[in-house]
Specification:
The complex is a heterodimer of chains A (about 100) and B (about 280).
Chain A: E1 2-9, E2 12-13, E3 18-21, E4 28-34, E5 39-46, H1 52-62, E6 68-76, H2 81-96
Parallel strand pairs in A: 2-6, 5-6
Antiparallel strand pairs in A: 1-5, 3-4, 4-6
Helix pairs in contact in A: 1-2
Chain B: H1 4-12, H2 21-28, E1 35-37, E2 62-69, E3 72-79, H3 90-108, E4 114-118, H4 129-146, E5 153-156, E6 162-163, H5 165-172, E7 175-179, E8 184-185, H6 189-196, H7 206-213, H8 215-220, E9 226-228, H9 232-244, H10 255-263, H11 273-279
Parallel strand pairs in B: 3-4, 4-5, 5-7, 6-8, 7-9
Antiparallel strand pairs in B: 1-2, 2-3
Helix pairs in contact in B: 3-4, 4-5
The chains are: A alpha/beta (about 100), B alpha/beta (about 280).
């Protein structure tokens, strides 16, 4: 198990909180809520160690399209980068629904 | 499923099995009444799993939802089978027991609450051992106390099924609704194979497993009450029917019947599953 954290600049406020996903095999859960400051913060807990660079690449890409000041908690159980991006985009979709 | 129309209807049905725990609770409650208690943002996580290198889920795999069923106050406890096999730990067990105990208190104060359990669980979470077992004992006690006031309705839909101490919880409920995909048993097939050997039970033989502990067999032998299709609307309707019709004497109080059933079995030559259906045919 490994814990990672990342910070990204944000441009707009996040109004509500959303929860998607499940900590199941090859899957993850995402808890997204308003950040306490003006930046976006991501706290990752993952069952697979040694993939910090891959997590950074996935989150870098996500934050080119999402500019909300969100506090995001990710609890991961071995999801592939594609599944991680899909879950993050599902959270954003739920946020805007 | 012979005609094209039947196939089309089957494909168009809203699957219950494909829903996650939260969506299942929503599907059971009256539309728009779902309100979650102790949800993921309360972060009541397992304190024990991370110490053992296992990632914890924010709601510990149990969704407790208040709402209404046919306009009557209700509480639904729904277990997420995809997280740790739906296993019951200290926190998830406390959420289940707490929900039932609060429903009991409301019933005692003259405010009936309709309790529904959506069980998808391998039983106690081994990493939390005794704490999970203690919580399951509290769940058992709460079901027995609560069913004197109101029917306690359980659904085992699949695909995990319901095993271990939680299979006893299912057995204690006033009405047990299952699908063909459900399995109900004290020990799961892998455990039996591991402990008693391949000659006793081949856990890889799916047809054999379902013929022994599948939903259809459990209904045919009287260990579950209603067999439904994997259809969220049909399951919600069966839950409503369970509260509308008075429950008979609880299965766990029919001790004489169950002892007589066991007495009719020759342990040296156990009957085939089909023969058991005749031998233990459910009373009409």
């Amino acid at each position: 198990m490994e814990r990672l954290s990342f910070t990204y600049p944000a441009r707009e406020a996040v109004a509500r909180r959303v929860h998607v996903g499940v900590v199941g095999s090859g899957d993850l859960e995402v808890l997204l809520e308003p950040s306490a400051d003006e930046d976006a913060h991501v706290a990752v807990t993952t069952s697979v160690e040694g993939f910090a660079t891959v997590w950074k690449h996935v989150l870098d890409r996500f934050f080119t399209r999402f500019e909300g000041a969100a506090a995001i908690e990710i609890n991961d159980f071995g999801a592939t980068p594609g599944v991680v991006l899909l879950r993050l985009e599902q959270a954003v979709e739920a946020l805007r629904a | 499923m012979s005609t094209a129309g039947e196939r089309q209807r089957f494909l168009a049905r809203p699957s219950f099995i494909e829903l996650d725990a939260r969506e299942r609770a929503c599907a059971i409650l009256d539309p728009g009444t779902f309100r979650e208690l102790a949800g993921p943002f309360d972060r009541l996580k397992s304190p024990w799993l991370p110490l053992q290198g296992v990632v914890a889920q924010a709601d510990d795999g149990v969704v407790i939802a208040r709402g209404s069923i046919e306009g009557r106050s209700a509480v639904v406890a729904s277990i997420e089978g995809a997280y740790q096999g739906g296993s019951i730990g200290e926190v998830s067990g406390a959420k289940l027991a707490g929900a039932l105990e609060l429903a009991l208190r409301d019933c005692q104060l003259g405010r009936p609450v309709r309790p529904v359990l959506l069980l998808e669980t391998g039983g106690v979470r081994l990493q939390e051992a005794n704490l999970g077992l203690a919580a399951i004992a509290e769940v058992h006690a709460a079901i027995v106390a609560l069913r004197r006031h109101v029917p306690v309705v359980a659904v085992v839909a699949g695909l995990v099924g319901c095993f271990g101490g939680m299979s006893l919880a299912a057995a204690l409920c006033s009405r047990l609704i299952v699908t063909r995909a459900a399995r109900l048993g004290m020990n799961g097939p892998e455990v039996i194979e591991q402990e008693a050997g391949l000659a006793e039970l081949d856990a890889g033989d799916r047809a054999l497993i379902w013929s022994l502990m599948g939903g259809e067999q459990r209904v045919a032998t009287g260990f579950a009450d209603v067999l439904v299709e994997d259809d969220a609307e049909a399951i919600a309707a069966e839950v409503r029917r369970a509260f509308a019709s008075p429950a008979g004497p609880p299965r766990s109080e029919q001790v004489e019947t169950l002892i007589a059933r066991l007495a009719g079995i020759d342990g040296e030559h156990p009957p085939e599953p089909a023969a058991l259906r005749t031998l233990w045919a459910r009373e009409a």
